[in-house]
């Protein structure tokens, strides 16, 4: 980085910090909106569970209907097999809850009928089932917090890094074209490589800031705010990341932020208008979110090939870091691949920024 | 501040030789924008490129400013070729287009500091030059105001200050009065004259005849990417049987288009 690239970096950040859209994308959304939404959704869910516990099945009502065939009593008395129907709506929360509550009742009826039938055939069956299972979660708040952190933080980081870099990357490239400030910049004695490097650095700084604020927002909302507010106390968690984990996570997210930032700057160089640039950037953002979700859904140890897929590899590796199950070869492949992709993307962005047929494409 | 060596009087500060630019369009094929033009500007001269919209003025000036690369031919600024010494060329020029804008979210001072840094000036030199330009360009009232809140005239004065900030020997002005009212345009022309008086070499494109007549020492009439006529205003008038510069322009351009 030359002195001139730092000048570009400073100017772009100053410019971005005076733009309300960047403030919303980097500070408001990661700190307030997403963690707030998560809390709110959790609170709604807990309210629904409370309702479920008091919900009564109203046969022939709106929640679920038990349909008994005609002549069921004589049929049972004869020992015939009968079929009853339980009608409910899976898409309706109250209806599916009613179905869940009815099912064990029907199982009890079935068991009682079997006992009656066996007794009528001379068998000594008068004992209740030997094993009854009661499910109870004995995880501590810290353990639940660790589990949630390992599940959510990699995804939130990828998601916020992509979201945080989107607007500034397009604004600093396509925006320069659209606002007719690009020619002025290109006629200065700063080389195009220095210009694009400064711009990429500003995008990466914003992306990492958005990622950091996303994690901080998650911690603040789930650990501090939820603990303080009685209505949300059921949602409170102990989210803790050790300093060594934080450092390792930063090292994994850095090449990904460079890769995403440079990719978005390259797109900005290519796009003719802000609208076109934002459309392409949205595709990149969606791809990042999709790959991040891949880690969210990963069950068990992932195959090594997944650590070669950009963005997904970062999220998978962060999960291993947060659960203290890092496999060295996974870390080497993931960080190596991300760094290589970041370098390639920086070269592409510089080439595109230096190519007049791309930059002045009409 | 970078002090660049000044050429001795009489030396060609801008030298353009067979400069050509062809754009390629997938549907239309090759589109020649500038066709083998050549001209020379001496130090302390205002050289005017006079032509209609789309005649090739902007493309020519963009090649001189190294924003676009020539398809063939060459141009030298202060002895440095735009093809292989673009960095050195950019150190020696100040480029301003009537279409170019400034960063709305920066203040005038921040903008000048930014461009000073991009041209390699040290911070103390930038501060002292800003103080100097504040007086000579009348920036005092609005230097610390955000560009987005400035009037068109203020922005144009700030743009001119930006162009001369690093004190380049060559100034390239592409229709600098475009979009300005009469008073704004007069102010810009006065600044151009002052810069010439200080020995700067200026290449000035316009489609406004009166502007060219008032300010240019030498004029090249450009049409469809080619220079059709070149000389001082008086010599062009003489060669075309008198009349105003507008008459000369209409006759010259009309001949090539078969309208004369």
From TrEMBL, chain A:
GO MF, one annotated term: ABC-type transporter activity
UniProt-listed Pfam families: ABC2_membrane_2
UniProt keyword list: Membrane, Transmembrane, Transmembrane helix
Name of the featured protein: ABC transporter permease
Residues passing through the membrane, by range: 21-44, 147-170, 201-226, 246-271, 283-309, 329-353
Organism lineage: Bacteria, Candidatus Eiseniibacteriota
Lineage top rank: taxon: Bacteria
An annotated GO cellular component: plasma membrane
Organism: Eiseniibacteriota bacterium
């Amino acid at each position: 980085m030359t002195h001139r690239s730092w000048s570009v970096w400073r100017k772009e950040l100053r410019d971005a910090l005076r733009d309300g859209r960047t403030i919303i994308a980097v500070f408001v959304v990661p700190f307030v909106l997403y963690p707030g939404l998560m809390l709110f959704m959790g609170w709604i869910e807990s309210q629904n569970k409370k309702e479920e516990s008091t919900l009564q099945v109203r046969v022939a009502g709106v929640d679920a209907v038990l349909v008994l065939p005609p002549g069921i009593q004589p049929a049972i008395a004869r020992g015939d097999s009968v079929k009853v129907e339980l009608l409910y709506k899976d898409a309706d929360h109250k209806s599916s809850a009613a179905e869940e509550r009815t099912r064990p009742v029907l199982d009890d009826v079935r068991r009682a009928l079997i006992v009656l039938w066996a007794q009528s055939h001379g068998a000594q069956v008068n004992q209740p089932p030997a094993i009854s299972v009661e499910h109870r979660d004995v995880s501590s708040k810290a353990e639940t917090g660790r589990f949630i952190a390992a599940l959510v933080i990699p995804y939130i980081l990828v998601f916020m890094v992509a979201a945080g870099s989107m607007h500034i990357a397009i604004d600093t490239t396509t925006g320069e074209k659209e606002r007719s400030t690009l020619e002025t910049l290109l006629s200065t004695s700063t080389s195009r490589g220095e210009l694009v490097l400064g711009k990429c650095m500003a995008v990466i700084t914003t992306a990492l800031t958005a990622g950091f604020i996303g994690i901080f927002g998650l911690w603040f909302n789930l650990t501090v705010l939820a603990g303080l507010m009685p209505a949300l106390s059921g949602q409170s968690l102990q989210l803790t990341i050790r300093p060594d984990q934080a450092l390792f996570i930063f090292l994994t997210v850095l090449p990904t932020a460079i890769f995403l930032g440079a990719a978005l700057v390259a797109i900005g160089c290519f796009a003719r208008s802000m609208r076109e640039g934002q459309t392409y950037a949205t595709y990149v953002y969606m791809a990042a979110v999709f790959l991040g979700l891949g880690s969210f859904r990963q069950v068990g140890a992932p195959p090594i090939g997944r650590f070669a897929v950009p963005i997904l590899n970062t999220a998978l590796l962060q999960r291993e870091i947060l659960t203290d199950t890092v496999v060295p070869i996974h870390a080497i492949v993931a960080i190596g691949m991300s760094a290589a992709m970041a370098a390639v993307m920086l070269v592409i962005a510089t080439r595109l920024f230096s190519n007049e047929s791309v930059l002045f494409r009409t | 501040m970078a002090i660049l060596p000044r050429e001795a009087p009489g030396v060609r500060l801008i030298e353009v030789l067979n400069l050509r630019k062809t754009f390629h369009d997938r549907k239309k094929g090759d589109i020649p924008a500038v066709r083998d033009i050549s001209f020379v500007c001496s130090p302390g001269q205002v050289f005017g490129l006079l032509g209609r919209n789309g005649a090739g003025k902007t493309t020519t000036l963009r090649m001189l400013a190294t924003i676009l690369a020539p398809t063939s031919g060459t141009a030298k600024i202060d002895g440095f070729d735009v093809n292989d010494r673009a960095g050195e060329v950019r150190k020696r020029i100040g480029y301003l287009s009537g279409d170019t804008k400034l960063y709305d979210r920066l203040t005038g001072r921040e903008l000048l500091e930014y461009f000073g840094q991009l041209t390699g000036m040290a911070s103390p030199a930038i501060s002292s030059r800003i103080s100097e330009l504040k007086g000579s360009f009348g920036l005092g009232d609005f230097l610390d105001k955000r560009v987005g809140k400035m009037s068109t005239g203020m922005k144009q004065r700030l743009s001119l200050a930006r162009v001369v900030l690093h004190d380049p020997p060559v100034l390239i002005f592409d229709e600098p009065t475009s979009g300005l009212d009469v008073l704004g345009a007069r102010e810009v022309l006065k600044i151009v004259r002052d810069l010439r008086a200080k020995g700067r070499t200026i290449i000035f494109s316009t489609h406004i005849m009166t502007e060219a007549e008032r300010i240019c020492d030498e004029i090249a009439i450009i049409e469809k990417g080619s220079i059709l006529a070149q000389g001082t205003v008086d010599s062009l008038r003489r060669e075309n049987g008198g009349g105003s510069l507008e008459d000369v322009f209409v006759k010259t351009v009309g001949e090539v288009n078969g309208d004369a």
